[in-house]
Amino acid sequence: MDELLRSFVCLPLQHDLQKRIAAWIRELKNTAPSLKWVRPEALHVTLKFLGSLPYPLLCDYCETLRRTLQGEKIPAIALRLENVEMLPHLRDPRVLCLRIGGDVVLLEKLQRLVEDMAETKGIPREKRRFLPHLTLARVREPRDCSISLFESVSSNPLHGVEWIGNTLVVMQSDLRPTGPVYTPISEQTLLPSS
User: Which of 11, 122, 127, 135 has the highest local Cβ count within 10 Å?
Assistant: First the structure.
């Protein structure tokens, strides 16, 4: 029986941006210590959660995605950090995130391509609409989101920070008591933007 690997497709952040966000998260942790904050090295924009797949199927998907990206010639994507939001909504928050702006049309095109290639391999499509965001923390209990947290995030020092999404990664996710550990399985560099 093949081992199942839990995985997803994402755009990781450059190291300098990870460090800037990590510094802000350290400040926010003091305001809301009971939230489950994302470690800096785990920050990414998820394009598709693949679920738990047999290793051969995952390798086949990675190769199909690589060939498709070469054929589509998708360039690196100019992105921008925007407002802090609670998902799915403020009344019952589960995720504290930064919305992603910039060339969202190109980002959505890449996400559709990732989704379409998964479907060709029998991986179910995501039913929810793609919402470009960067998860900062997971909310265990809505009451953990205090007024002081909302005040802290409203003065978001990262609003408007621009970055380039230039690498598409298929990432393995090992769930551990200390938090998930991510290991790249496949990386595809997007073309330089013109």
Answer: 11
pLDDT of residue 147: 75
User: Which residue numbers in the chain have pLDDT < 50?
Assistant: none
Which residue matches tokens 């998260």? 25
- Rounded to 5°, angle at Cα 179 from 175 and 182: 65
- pLDDT tens-digit map of 106-135: 999 999 999 999 999 999 999 999 999 999
